[in-house]
Amino acid sequence: MTTLEITEEVLPAPNMFSTAGPFEGTDVLVGAMSTSGALTEWVKGFTGDASFEELTEEAQEVAPGSDGLVVLPYFAGERTPISDPDARGVICGLTLSHGRGHLYRAMLEATAFGARHLLEALREAGGKAERFVAVGGGTKGGLWTQIVSDAIGVSQELPEQTIGAAYGDALLAGIACGLVETGTDWSTISEVVEPNPENREVYDELYAVYKDLYPATRPMAHTLADMQTGRDTRGKTPA
């Protein structure tokens, strides 16, 4: 999952990164998670032959907060805002009462908490984050986008075309070549996902757990990362 905002100036942010903007005099402040959709593929791969539609239906039957299940989505390390390749995934609060639907929903909620963390970093860097437009495969089916809106507390606009970067690249290329008029907007909005205020309290509480979980488990995660990568840890003091 990636969050980005076009700005009129470079905003220094050591826990984010920036790149040249699409128009003259603009910059793009970017935050990106290492895993998001891969988490749903991971759950699907080892929990049987259920389709994503079936997993989504099971997750919809689970209450917001997944009955006290919190996941750190750092299954491939993490880029922003913690910049830690040795971070590792954590599933916290798991009990025998949790099932596949709980785990799948907790993965969706983990990416929502990750997006909230990125949004906080973006605003701390000086970004305004005034309009939210969601694209990509995660916008299909309704549940994932609703969880993100609920966890962050923002409305998300969903365009008719959700293929993301390639669609915008084609538009910019057309403008640059003179084939498309400057100011043209292809992103016709088809739906707006509003946050459900009834879910804000539980997500605020679990997000606090999410934020505390990484620093609490970081030394152990680094030790395990050393073992997984074969690095020599003799005499090493845990970070």
User: Segments where pLDDT lies below 50 for 5+ residues?
Assistant: none
**Gyration radius, in Å:** 19 Å
N to C succession of SSEs? EEEHHEEHHEHEH
Helix content: 40-55%
Output the CATH class name.
Alpha Beta
Ends apart, CA distance between termini: 27 Å
Task: Name the assembly state.
Answer: single chain
Just name the CATH architecture.
2-Layer Sandwich
**What is the CATH superfamily classification?**
ATPase, nucleotide binding domain
| Overall shape | globular
Q: Which percent range describes the beta-strand content?
A: 5-15%
Major sheet size, sense and barrel closure = 3 strands, antiparallel
* CATH domain fold name: Nucleotidyltransferase, domain 5
* Overall number of strands: 7
Number of self-contained structural domains: 1
Q: Given the helix and strand composition, which structural class is it?
A: alpha+beta
Please report the number of helical segments.
Answer: 6
